[in-house]
Design goal:
Blueprint: H1 5-17, E1 23-26, E2 29-37, E3 41-45, E4 51-54, E5 61-63, H2 71-88, E6 97-102, E7 113-115, E8 120-126, H3 129-142, H4 145-149, E9 154-159, E10 165-167
Antiparallel strand pairs: 1-2, 1-5, 2-3, 3-4, 6-8, 6-9, 7-8, 7-10
Length: 168
Protein backbone atom coordinates (compact mmCIF):
# COMPACT_ATOMS: atom_id res chain seq x y z
CA UNK A 1 0.00 0.00 0.00
CA UNK A 2 1.36 3.41 -0.91
CA UNK A 3 1.55 5.74 2.10
CA UNK A 4 2.57 9.38 2.09
CA UNK A 5 4.82 10.77 4.84
CA UNK A 6 1.95 12.92 6.15
CA UNK A 7 -0.24 9.78 6.51
CA UNK A 8 2.52 8.06 8.47
CA UNK A 9 2.87 11.12 10.70
CA UNK A 10 -0.89 11.18 11.32
CA UNK A 11 -1.03 7.45 12.17
CA UNK A 12 1.92 7.94 14.56
CA UNK A 13 0.02 10.74 16.35
CA UNK A 14 -3.13 8.65 16.65
CA UNK A 15 -1.13 5.68 17.98
CA UNK A 16 0.67 7.95 20.44
CA UNK A 17 -2.63 9.17 21.90
CA UNK A 18 -3.73 5.56 22.29
CA UNK A 19 -7.50 6.17 22.38
CA UNK A 20 -8.73 4.33 19.31
CA UNK A 21 -6.06 2.28 17.56
CA UNK A 22 -5.20 2.27 13.88
CA UNK A 23 -5.77 -1.28 12.64
CA UNK A 24 -3.52 -2.56 9.85
CA UNK A 25 -4.11 -5.70 7.79
CA UNK A 26 -1.12 -7.61 6.44
CA UNK A 27 -2.27 -10.71 4.59
CA UNK A 28 -5.06 -12.26 6.66
CA UNK A 29 -3.85 -10.86 10.00
CA UNK A 30 -4.77 -7.59 11.69
CA UNK A 31 -2.24 -5.63 13.72
CA UNK A 32 -2.25 -2.37 15.69
CA UNK A 33 -0.10 0.52 14.42
CA UNK A 34 2.75 1.17 16.85
CA UNK A 35 5.20 3.44 15.00
CA UNK A 36 6.06 4.22 11.40
CA UNK A 37 9.12 5.66 9.69
CA UNK A 38 8.77 6.88 6.07
CA UNK A 39 12.23 5.52 5.14
CA UNK A 40 12.30 2.14 6.85
CA UNK A 41 8.79 0.77 7.38
CA UNK A 42 6.30 0.34 10.16
CA UNK A 43 6.22 -1.41 13.54
CA UNK A 44 2.94 -3.15 14.21
CA UNK A 45 1.78 -4.83 17.40
CA UNK A 46 0.19 -8.28 17.44
CA UNK A 47 -2.73 -9.18 19.72
CA UNK A 48 -0.27 -10.86 22.06
CA UNK A 49 1.68 -7.58 22.37
CA UNK A 50 4.71 -8.53 20.24
CA UNK A 51 6.12 -5.85 17.89
CA UNK A 52 6.68 -6.86 14.26
CA UNK A 53 8.31 -4.79 11.51
CA UNK A 54 6.79 -4.64 8.02
CA UNK A 55 7.54 -2.83 4.80
CA UNK A 56 4.82 -0.46 3.57
CA UNK A 57 4.39 -2.60 0.46
CA UNK A 58 3.21 -5.50 2.63
CA UNK A 59 0.26 -3.55 4.08
CA UNK A 60 -3.07 -4.49 2.50
CA UNK A 61 -5.51 -2.28 4.40
CA UNK A 62 -5.62 0.39 7.14
CA UNK A 63 -8.66 1.30 9.24
CA UNK A 64 -8.76 4.18 11.69
CA UNK A 65 -10.84 4.63 14.80
CA UNK A 66 -11.64 0.97 15.40
CA UNK A 67 -12.43 0.39 19.04
CA UNK A 68 -10.84 -2.67 20.56
CA UNK A 69 -13.45 -4.89 22.16
CA UNK A 70 -12.57 -6.73 25.30
CA UNK A 71 -14.76 -9.51 26.64
CA UNK A 72 -16.10 -7.33 29.43
CA UNK A 73 -16.86 -4.44 27.04
CA UNK A 74 -18.66 -6.81 24.66
CA UNK A 75 -20.71 -8.28 27.53
CA UNK A 76 -21.66 -4.76 28.62
CA UNK A 77 -22.78 -3.83 25.08
CA UNK A 78 -24.85 -7.02 24.79
CA UNK A 79 -26.44 -6.42 28.23
CA UNK A 80 -27.43 -2.87 27.22
CA UNK A 81 -28.95 -4.05 23.92
CA UNK A 82 -30.93 -6.82 25.64
CA UNK A 83 -32.25 -4.27 28.15
CA UNK A 84 -33.33 -1.96 25.31
CA UNK A 85 -35.13 -4.85 23.61
CA UNK A 86 -36.92 -5.83 26.83
CA UNK A 87 -38.08 -2.26 27.38
CA UNK A 88 -39.32 -2.03 23.80
CA UNK A 89 -41.20 -5.33 24.13
CA UNK A 90 -43.35 -4.32 27.12
CA UNK A 91 -46.97 -4.91 26.25
CA UNK A 92 -49.19 -1.85 26.08
CA UNK A 93 -52.82 -2.96 25.94
CA UNK A 94 -53.89 0.57 24.96
CA UNK A 95 -52.38 0.10 21.50
CA UNK A 96 -54.65 -1.00 18.65
CA UNK A 97 -52.98 -4.13 17.26
CA UNK A 98 -51.33 -7.18 18.74
CA UNK A 99 -49.10 -9.94 17.43
CA UNK A 100 -50.22 -13.32 18.70
CA UNK A 101 -48.43 -16.68 18.67
CA UNK A 102 -50.61 -19.70 18.03
CA UNK A 103 -49.48 -23.22 18.83
CA UNK A 104 -46.40 -24.15 20.83
CA UNK A 105 -45.79 -26.58 23.64
CA UNK A 106 -47.71 -27.08 26.87
CA UNK A 107 -46.84 -24.61 29.59
CA UNK A 108 -45.09 -22.14 27.32
CA UNK A 109 -47.69 -19.40 27.92
CA UNK A 110 -47.60 -18.96 31.68
CA UNK A 111 -47.83 -15.40 32.95
CA UNK A 112 -48.83 -14.00 29.57
CA UNK A 113 -51.96 -12.60 28.01
CA UNK A 114 -53.89 -15.19 26.01
CA UNK A 115 -56.74 -14.71 23.55
CA UNK A 116 -59.58 -16.94 24.80
CA UNK A 117 -61.00 -17.36 21.29
CA UNK A 118 -57.84 -18.78 19.69
CA UNK A 119 -55.62 -19.73 22.66
CA UNK A 120 -52.90 -17.56 21.12
CA UNK A 121 -50.33 -15.76 23.29
CA UNK A 122 -49.94 -11.98 22.98
CA UNK A 123 -46.31 -11.34 22.05
CA UNK A 124 -46.19 -7.63 21.13
CA UNK A 125 -48.44 -4.61 20.66
CA UNK A 126 -48.34 -1.91 17.99
CA UNK A 127 -50.21 1.25 17.01
CA UNK A 128 -50.58 0.41 13.32
CA UNK A 129 -51.69 -2.68 11.47
CA UNK A 130 -48.70 -2.52 9.09
CA UNK A 131 -46.19 -2.64 11.98
CA UNK A 132 -48.00 -5.61 13.55
CA UNK A 133 -48.21 -7.51 10.24
CA UNK A 134 -44.53 -6.78 9.54
CA UNK A 135 -43.53 -8.18 12.94
CA UNK A 136 -45.70 -11.27 12.42
CA UNK A 137 -44.17 -11.87 9.00
CA UNK A 138 -40.59 -11.52 10.31
CA UNK A 139 -41.34 -13.80 13.26
CA UNK A 140 -42.94 -16.45 11.01
CA UNK A 141 -39.81 -16.37 8.87
CA UNK A 142 -37.71 -17.23 11.93
CA UNK A 143 -39.74 -20.32 12.83
CA UNK A 144 -38.18 -23.66 11.95
CA UNK A 145 -40.09 -26.19 9.81
CA UNK A 146 -40.54 -28.36 12.92
CA UNK A 147 -42.06 -25.50 14.92
CA UNK A 148 -44.47 -24.79 12.09
CA UNK A 149 -45.46 -28.40 11.37
CA UNK A 150 -45.07 -30.31 14.65
CA UNK A 151 -46.03 -27.58 17.14
CA UNK A 152 -48.36 -25.72 14.74
CA UNK A 153 -46.77 -22.39 15.60
CA UNK A 154 -47.74 -19.27 13.67
CA UNK A 155 -47.64 -15.53 14.37
CA UNK A 156 -50.68 -13.45 13.42
CA UNK A 157 -51.60 -9.77 13.70
CA UNK A 158 -55.02 -9.18 15.25
CA UNK A 159 -56.87 -6.03 16.28
CA UNK A 160 -56.88 -6.01 20.10
CA UNK A 161 -60.53 -4.92 20.25
CA UNK A 162 -61.48 -8.29 18.66
CA UNK A 163 -59.44 -10.38 21.10
CA UNK A 164 -60.70 -11.53 24.49
CA UNK A 165 -57.55 -11.34 26.60
CA UNK A 166 -57.05 -13.31 29.79
CA UNK A 167 -53.93 -13.33 31.97
CA UNK A 168 -52.73 -16.93 32.32
Amino acid sequence: MKLKPRDIKRYNKIAEKGRKPVMVRVGNNWYTWYEGDPKHGVFLTTQSGRDVEFDFKQIDDIEEGIEKLTKSKLKEIIREEIQKLKEAEKLDLKKSYGVFLRGGSIGSGRGQYIDRKTDAKLVATYDSESEAKGRAKRSNGRLSPGEKKYYGMKYTAIKLSRAKLVKS
